[in-house]
Records
---
Amino acid sequence: MGHDNVGTIVGEGWGVVHLMLRARRGGSGEDIRAAIAEFTAIEPNQAVVFSVMGGRADFGVMLVGPDLDALDRCTKRVRSGPVRCVASFFSVTEQSEYTTTENDERARLAAEGTDDIDAALTQWRERMTTYREDRLYPRLPPRRVIAFYPMSKTRNVGANWYALDFAERKRLMLGHGRVGRRYAGRVLQLITGATGLDDWEWGVTLFADEPTVIKDIVYEMRFDEVSAVYGEFGPFWTGLVTDVDDALQRSGLS
């Protein structure tokens, strides 16, 4: 049975593919260019193309969209060009299970002696609605630098994340989040889930306008207990965001 007109939808959230590609010199990138153009012509599909810094790859492509069939077709067309895929990662956008609940927020407001708790909660609900939409249905920002890395939580003796009870994991993650919020506006992050889908449990994509702020936030978070005790990290990839034509030209593809 054919599936040409039937899309496979993630459910809640969108699918995400990261590709790191090595160009075969002298080839044409026309089909890669056409594949990305056709993919992004359909809302809400998005693509970020970037020139990879260093020598492990020439350029990278990040694809985001709700229809996994469309995502897969674009991925296969890109990979069928004059390139060799040196790394890839598949994940889906998701909400954090450790997000503050309304009861948590009400208790915090009461402890701080907030006069009008109901009004404060109304504002909090609006912020959380925006936060949920940004996590599940992101609009990728027009920043100049992208960094991506996969990660998992440890299962080591004495440092098994999954042996902790939920309340302790939530306490640690809320503290971890406070570190990240100090970089609000300077670094935008998208955390996607890959448990059971790829070799790592999460993918972290960071967007900024210059690389040192990415270095700073990753360094500072290394001292947080969530990372220092329970974090395992895969390879880091950093690139300069550009358009498709420029990325292909830099990579030697006409």
Note: The two ends are 38 Å apart (CA to CA).
---
Amino acid sequence: MRAVGVNVHGGPEALEVVDLPEVNAGPGEVRIRVYAAAVNPTDTMARNGSRAEQQKLDPPPYVPGMDAAGIVDQVGEGVATGVEVGDAVMAMVVPKASHGAYREQIVLVARAVLPAPARTTHIEACTLPMNGLTARLSLDLLGLTPGQTLGVTGAAGAYGGYVIQIARAEGLTVIADASAADQALVKSLGADIVVRRGDDVAARIREHFPDGVDGLADGAVQKGLVIPAVRDGGGFTSVRGFEGEAQRGITFSTTWVRTYDGEYEKLDRLRQQVEAGAITLRVADTYSPEQAGEAHRRLEAGGTRGRLVITF
């Protein structure tokens, strides 16, 4: 079967179409014929050598990809989630060696696979799992309650947009950043207040909330620059492993979405929110496997709004 991976780390041009052996579902597992795989920033790290230390125990090719959608074509013994052959499904994938979402066929534990939102295409459905679960985890870590305030940086991105929409559905007041070009988009996602993005975003947030926000989700990875936006005793969560120095009673956390692998109920709740119209799926463009390098190049250039998707 076809997959997209790297045999030698490098730039976008290092991605190539590779041939992998067929895999079969074992007990408690489901096999998906993958039709769409979203392209995320974490995928570029698997390609460019940033994760070479973790990959070195496994032989290439290294296949990136954390989001897949397609059709179930094999169900192993003992699967109790109700999934059947022929079902349209989506899943988050935790890549390891050639086990990434950029492949025509993948086997996963049953609890990682669940129905795609009704009335969505494979291309749309594959944009939800990883970023949706990342947003869900960030909000769980912050532990805010209805009526409290949340700051979001990187609000126009996939993660930031999901954080805004889930937070608004849970009764939080959201202040988010945006460039002039993205202001209308971020407002449409549900942000109550939109401030101009930049290194001074903390000061701009404090103009609206002088004591600071109750929690902040740092999707723009501005790290220490945005800590001042958080009130004393508030919460701050980072998506890239940043751990702030202890100060003002702030609770720092890191959002590692791999800890939510197989969290069927949490992803199913996101599916329901998509079907109810509370969460919007955004697709920027699609690429063939042979064009995967171009998708990575475009993502790394910045400014993409919605997910780029590789279709099989």
Note: The two ends are 10 Å apart (CA to CA).
